[in-house]
Amino acid sequence: MKKLLPAFILLAGLASCKNDKKEAKFDNKSYEQVKESLAEKEQKNPAKFLVVSNRDRKNLIGQTVVIGTITNRATVCWYKDVELHLSFYSKTGVKLDEGMETVYEHIGPGKTVKFKTRYFAPKGTDSVAVAVNKASGDIDHTK
Hints:
Elements: H1 4-16, H2 28-44, H3 46-49, E1 50-58, E2 64-72, E3 78-89, E4 95-107, E5 112-119, E6 127-138
Antiparallel strand pairs: 1-2, 2-5, 3-4, 3-6
């Protein structure tokens, strides 16, 4: 009898641990809606999803050479014709000049593209800041 009691308690415990959770079914329709709304957000806000990193140097004829990369952090959207805003600063942080440069490349989700441009920057330029001004976004890059 003493040997049957622990077995009975174990059996009762296992029977009471019934799994009432129903398995969640994958809903294709809601998935597509979420994907479309995400694509719309990414298309409307390219500056939030395109990240620019850069460095600059002087070449032999005195031009400022700006070399950098543009990384697409979007999950669905492809970008093309990225317009960059370049700001030239002095050592004290005064903005000396501005310029625009367009990178004519297709940048896929999660991809990185290199760019290089040359400017005759104003005298006293110490650094160059680069930011995304605008870009064309689309879900299908073949258009």
